[in-house]
Amino acid sequence: MSKKDIINRLRRVEGQVRGLQKMIEEERTCSDILTQLSAVSGALQKIGELTMKEYTKGCIMEYEQNHNEDLLNDLIETISKFKKI
Amino acid sequence: MSKKDIINRLRRVEGQVRGLQKMIEEERTCSDILTQLSAVSGALQKIGELTMKEYTKGCIMEYEQNHNEDLLNDLIETISKFKKI
Amino acid sequence: MSKKDIINRLRRVEGQVRGLQKMIEEERTCSDILTQLSAVSGALQKIGELTMKEYTKGCIMEYEQNHNEDLLNDLIETISKFKKI
Amino acid sequence: MSKKDIINRLRRVEGQVRGLQKMIEEERTCSDILTQLSAVSGALQKIGELTMKEYTKGCIMEYEQNHNEDLLNDLIETISKFKKI
Hints:
The structure is a homotetramer.
Chain A: H1 3-25, H2 30-66, H3 69-83
């Protein structure tokens, strides 16, 4: 995972969230606000996917070194956590 | 929907997203990052719920005035859009 | 909502779930099983959407008759329940 | 993953889906139907989680044998597929 890529994605999300505040101030329609909320949610999903990808690779590499069963359990647990994003 | 309440919620989300950027900079674990992403996602869900609530009430009130079938279809469509947040 | 349409959809889902049992018996790959689970989940989502559509129309029609605020609150609550399907 | 456990869970889901057909026949409320749909969806989620757990362990074990990078990519892809259940 390129730190720079993720940080840029998060900056865009931050901008979208500020945009949402402006939309509320301007009393934009609920439909427009829900559309924007979906966009922010989708962007966070993508960041979660990239993070999960990195995490999974890390777990497997580490498991290879030390065969610590806990790593597998952590990975399983994290996959379930990821599902809820 | 209190504009002020929603804007405050969005400000908190904005802070959480900045916090995520800091976590990436500090190379916090993927697990910590996914936990924070879940928190942000949950906060957006809540904002979506409040928006949806307001929208639904508005649709019903307006429908009562003009019995425009389009309002019902818009509401149905928006409920599906809301599901995807 | 055509009762017949929904029941046919549910029959198809029932068949898909039996298919999943067969896949487990035959020790098909987890990847194949997850693909089939996604298909079943998608079919249930669609049934939920059709049910929600019907429900929403019913609420609005009834509200028009008696202006019972509870109907609005039930609708809001049901929209949130629908989101979790 | 105990095949027997998963098959029993799928049999229960099959029963729930038949129950839903009966609910439609009996013209139960949309709210009751959505509640039942949520229950079925939750049961499928759990089956997906158990399948994913098994799959992940399998991938890691196999990766250890042959260090085939494709296994990692398949796992990442399957995690994303799992998210959509």
